[in-house]
Amino acid sequence: MLNMAEGVARLGALAASPVVSALADAFAAAGYELAIVGGPVRDALLGRPTNDLDFTSNARPDDILRIVEPLATATWDIGRAFGTIGAKVRGESVEITTYRADSYDGVTRKPTVEFGDTLEQDLARRDFTVNAMALRVPGPTLVDPAGGVEDLVARSLRTPGDPAVSFGDDPLRMLRAARFASQLGFSVTDDTRAAMSELAGTLSIVSPERIQGELVKLLRTDAPDDGIRLLVDAGLMQLVIPEVPALRLEIDEHHHHKDVYEHSLTVLRQAIDLERERHPGSPPDVVLRLAALLHDIGKPATRKLEPGGGVSFHHHDITGARLARKRLQALRFDSDTIASTTRLVELHLRFFGYSEGAWTDSAVRRYVRDAGGELERLHILTRADVTTRNKRKASRLRTAYDDIERRIDVLAAEEELNSLRPELDGNRIQQILGIAPGREVGEAYRFLMDIRLDEGVIGPDAAEERLRAWWAARG
C-alpha cells in the first residue's frame, strides 16, 4: 500500500540530492524550467530504488548543453535529434529532454519529433499515468495532470488518454503494459486491456529488435509470468512468440495430460526462485528464463494420442530446440543467447533417465560434457521442471538430482570435469600417427574422448598405446 506521507518525503529527498539541486539551480539561473519526470518520480513514491535520472525542460537542446557543460564531467548528444542531451553530473548519469509534443503517422511507430511548450503537454504524450508524473525543481512541486498518484494507490495501469489512441500511436506500449504489470505488480484496467486485444495486430509495425528489448525487460522482472499471461490473453504473444500460446493444448476427454501452458509458467516461476536461492544478488538470468518458458514448445508438434488414453510427446526436446532457435533468430537475439537457450531446451529431459536408474561415471561425465558451460543453468531448469503434485515422486526426483550434483562435484574434484578433453591433443595425435591435419585427426580425437568419458584418466602413455592399437586395427 502506498504511504503518501513517506512518498512525499522521498520526493523531497530526491529533489534535495546534490545532482538535482545543482541542475535545478543552473536551469533556474538561466531562466528555464526543469522537472524530474517518469520512472524516478514513480519509484520514489513507491519506495523503489531510483536509478538514472530523467529530466525534461522547456530549454532547447543547444541551451541544455550550454547549461550542463559547466557541471558535467562528460556529455553526449546521441539523442539530440529527439531533444535529449545526456551528461555525467556528480558521478550520476542524467538525461535532459526538451518538452515534446510528438505526432504519429499511424504507419510506423516513429514519431514526428515536435518540441512542446509546457510540461503538461509533454506529460500527456507519455505511455501510462504512473509514468506521466513530474517533480518540478527547485521547489519541489509534484505535477500529475493524469491522476498517476491515484493509480499508484489503486495499483492500476492505464494510459493518460484513450488507450486506443495511445497504442495506435506506438504499439510497443502494449508490451510495456505487460512489463510494468509484472515489474510493479499492478493490474491493467479493463479499457486498457480491451484496447490491447483490439490493436494487437498493429504490433507488426514494430521492429523485431524493439520487441526483443521489451521481452527481455519483461523476463528480468520478479514475476514475468503475470505479464506473459496478459500478452497471451490479449493476443499479443501470438505475434511475439506464437509457440507460447500454442502450449494451451486442447484436452481430449479420453486422453489426459497436464496443462503444458500452466506447467511452463510454473517452471518459469520455480526457475526464478531457484536462481535467487542459488545465486543471491546476481542479476536476472535471461537465458535461464527463456529456456524455462520455451522448454516444452516442441510438445504441440509432437503430441500423439496413444491407445488406452495416454499421450506421448516423443522427441519434443529436439523439436523444441529447433523451434526455439528459429524464434529467437527472428527476434534478433544474439548468437550466444540463442545457442545457450536452445542447448538447454534440447537437454532439459536428459536427467530424467538418471532418476530411473543409477548412471555410470561415464554417463555422468557425458552429461557434464554435453551441458558444457550451461551445466548450472541445466541444474536449475531440470529441478524447476518438476511440477508434479505427487509428493513422493517430487521427493524422489529431488533426491536423485541431489545425488547427481554430488557425483558431479566428486568427479570434478578428481578429474577437472569442467575442462574434459582427451589426454592427447591434436598435435600429439598427428606426431604419434604420422598424419597431417584432417578428418582422421578428428576421428582419433573422438576415439580418445570416448575413452576419457568411459574410463576417466588413464595416463598419456596408456592413451598413446590405445591410440596406436586403434590406428593399427583400421589398417
Automatic annotation (TrEMBL):
Residue span(s) of domain HD: 260-411
Key words, A-Z: ATP-binding, Magnesium, Metal-binding, Nucleotide-binding, Nucleotidyltransferase, RNA repair, RNA-binding, Transferase, tRNA processing
MF (Gene Ontology): ATP binding; CCA tRNA nucleotidyltransferase activity; metal ion binding; RNA binding
Organism superkingdom: Bacteria
InterPro entries given in the database record: HD/PDEase_dom, HD_domain, HDIG_dom, NT_sf, PolA_pol_head_dom, PolyA_RNA-bd, tRNA_adenylyltransferase, tRNA_CCA-adding_enzyme
Enzyme class, broadest EC rank: transferase
Gene3D superfamilies in alphabetical order: Beta Polymerase, domain 2 (3.30.460.10), cca-adding enzyme, domain 2 (1.10.3090.10)
A biological-process GO annotation: RNA repair
Cofactor(s) of this protein: Mg(2+)
Pfam families to which the protein is assigned, alphabetical: HD (PF01966), PolyA_pol (PF01743), PolyA_pol_RNAbd (PF12627)
EC number: 2.7.7.72
PANTHER family named in the record: MULTIFUNCTIONAL CCA PROTEIN
Protein name, as recorded: CCA tRNA nucleotidyltransferase
Lineage: Bacteria, Bacillati, Actinomycetota, Actinomycetes, Micrococcales
